Amino acid sequence: MTGTEENTTSYEGSFSVTEAESVVKESIDATIGGEDYNKEQVNKWTAAILERCLGDLCKLGKTYKYIVTCAVTQKTGAGLHAANSCYWDTTLDGSCTVKWENRTMYCIVSVFALSIA
Amino acid sequence: MTASSNSDVRPVGKLQRVQGGAHHRAEVGEDKPIHGLYQVGGQGDWSVVGRFLGMCCFRNWDHTGGLPQDGDLLQAEAQIVDVAEDLGELVCTGPQQPGTDAIWSCSFPLPQSTSALSSLGLVQWRGGSEGGNGVNCRGWGRLGTSRIAQVDFPPKELVSYSKETQTLLTTHPLEVEEEEEDEEMDVKPGLDSEPPDEDDAKETKDVLRELTEEERQQILHSAEFQSFFDCSIRVMERALAEDTDIYFDYSGRDLDVSGGSSLSFSRLFYDEHWSKHRVITCLDWSPQYPELLVASYNNNEDAPHEPDGVALVWNIKFKKATPEYIYHCQSPVVSVGFARFHPNLVVGGTYSGQIVLWDNRSHRRTPVQRTPLSAAAHTHPVYCVNVVGTQNANNLISVSTDGRMCSWSLDMLSQPQETMELVYNKSKPVAVTCMDFPTGDVNNYVVGSEEGTVYTASRHGSKAGICEMFDGHQGPVTGISCHSAVGPMDFSHLFITSSFDWTVKLWSTKHNRPLYSFEDNADYVYDAMWSPVHPAMFAAVDGMGRLDLWNLNNDTEVPTASVIVEGASALNRVRWSATGKEVSVGDSEGRVWVYDTGELSVAHSDDWARFARTLVEIRASHGDEEEEGPMELSS
């Protein structure tokens, strides 16, 4: 379960990767922590994760626009590869991607924070 | 021109580029970083090659912290988007204490901008002192591509294997008794996995694979491997054991002269596995290959699971210490001989009464043919086997201790061609312990018995069966030998016998009492044999480990040469080789000793005449000692 760092130095008011990571992990664990893949429930789970993530990020109170994506994949032995990149203000903006897995499924959540002011 | 809305912003001065020249010239739309020195302040005209878009990083070279002053040089790093003429004013928007972050901004128009930030036309500097290097500014609003965030979940590796199996074609495995060979095969399996790859180097990669244990065993037990191994192992053993002497001096300077005229030890044949704890029961030299010697062995009481009867063929020509052929059977072999007219066959008489035949053409160590265990054949130990006759008409004669003599054809051992009970005077059967045929005679033979009497017998004719009785020994007769040296005179009527009564006696078939008795031994004399080349020589062995060579032309009282074998074990058998140069003895520990007789056994032309005279003397002296002279017999 790793995240990706955008800025090594964080300034006051800038995006904190570690903080976002912890928010995301917590919301995933709370939603699908002990569950097995269930095709009926997957949609509910992704919605729940997103809502929770966004809610927690906004509570941080920073002047950012957030974009959050969530992907849940069943573990069938197939490989899954994803990548993202952005063109933005490298000082103020940031993103964070969190990988999570359990016995039956993978979950990838990406958070993009774009500074407003 | 727009300015920052921050209340702390106040103009510092204008930005002027003073260095970093033409090579930084860029075209419209091209992103290129500008490295150069820009002077802060001053009112003069200044020109800039490109327009700053986004972040500019300014570093004050001369400043130790705080606000840049007029004349300060700031270094810029920026990306050019468009050519512009007016950069604008450098403004400080933050606190100005040394050691703290200061924000500088320079605003300038950006008619073309691609990001929301840059459309504001603001360039913001963040300052911070770094070790006295001055202000380190970082621009705000610089747009750039972020690092690519990648997420990877590799696919699950499916381990697949082929479910079909293919059993290899195997030939019928050889008998279990041949596991003996497996011990020797430790080195050999490597040979099989080496492919013939001289021609195609490409194929070496997939042919040189490790063989599994099963494949190895299959190859080891296949018939073609066994036959290949059987043949090549002999050659290899000989080659390994050979050590020819390159220093040999033919002038004989280095030779020990004295060794030529006495009995000298030549070879010892002993096999750790097959000879140990077994008594040698019989020896025979091969008529076709004078270097081959077969020895038969009794059972090994310490190893009840090993075969009871063993016969080993030894080779004196090569220095290898292992037998040429190893044969065994289920009953102790008490007599053995090469089949004279069948070079590949070895005949054995066993304790159970069976006669077994081994063939060195097959790779089996067990007999290829056996006589039946029936009342029609022998039911007692067969102590004598002999092939007599000619190439075209030959028979295997066997006599057992119950007095039965059987004549067999080697092609068919399922039943004897003729049988005869050897009975003396129609009363009791003769318990035969040894037998011999005079040279050239296929009809008459002599036998020695357990009671100490010797008989002559005939196979065919009106007097078929026991003919004459010769009395003289006081103990069982252990060995009998007819005179066999061929020379100008005929002594074929002579034979010698050895017995438990410590004597060797010389007889003539013409007299029913011994001609002479040799009494030099102090123990049971187990065997005696005439020399095949010297008319007056014979060898005798006794239970004290003594091998005696008697030359009657020299002395009739004591042996001419005598040697005690190492270890002084009882010697059971003695056999001269066909050339008369070697004599082999077998002892009770399973060892075959081969001695060189050297000069002793060379027969000179006058030896025959001398022997005739010796006989006359013997008879004369014998007649003096005894009260009764030997009776002349009609035969």
Provide the descriptors you would attach to this structure in a database record.
heterodimer, A: 117 residues, alpha+beta, Ribosomal protein S3 C-terminal domain, 3-stranded antiparallel β-sheet, 2 helices, 29% helix, disordered N terminus, B: 635 residues, mainly beta, 4-stranded antiparallel β-sheet
The helix content of chain A is: 25-40%
Strand neighbour order, sheet with most strands of chain B: 3-4-2-1-5-6-7-8
Low-confidence stretches of chain A: 1-12
Distance N terminus to C terminus of chain B? 158 Å
**Structural class of the helices, strands and pairings of chain B?**
mainly beta
Q: Judging from the principal axes of the Cα atoms, what is the shape of chain B?
A: elongated
Q: Please indicate the percent range of residues of chain A in DSSP E strands (runs of 2 or more).
A: 25-35%
Estimate the mean pLDDT confidence of chain B: 73
What is the architecture of chain A at the second tier of CATH?
2-Layer Sandwich
Number of strands of chain B: 40
Strand fraction band of chain B?
25-35%
**Largest contact between chains:** A-B, 31 and 25 residues
Q: Report the span from N to C terminus of chain A.
A: 32 Å
Fold-level CATH name of chain A = Ribosomal protein S3 C-terminal domain
SSE succession of chain A: HHEEEEE
Strand arrangement within the widest β-sheet of chain A reads 1-5-4
Major β-sheet profile of chain A: 3 strands, antiparallel
CATH class descriptor of chain A? Alpha Beta
Low-confidence stretches of chain B: 1-14, 16-65, 75-89, 91-140, 186-204, 627-632
Radius of gyration of chain A (CA) equals: 15 Å
Main location (chain A): nucleus
Subcellular location (chain A): Chromosome, Centromere, Kinetochore; Cytoplasm, Cytoskeleton; Nucleus
Keywords (chain A): Cell cycle, Cell division, Centromere, Chromosome, Cytoplasm, Cytoskeleton, Dynein, Kinetochore, Microtubule, Mitosis, Motor protein, Nitration, Nucleus, Transport
GO molecular function, one term (chain A): dynein intermediate chain binding
